[in-house]
Amino acid sequence: MILTWVGAVLGLALLIAMAAGTFVVDFDDRLQERRSKAKSADPLP
Asked: Which pTM was predicted?
């Protein structure tokens, strides 16, 4: 029974880590899009 709970906790931790990872990657992509738009709108050399 203890191994079942340990497996469940590890599975939940893995799911939470995967969700947090996708959030970080999506947030980083949005920041890069903003930077590229700012560079293309800025006519400075």
From this structure: 0.60
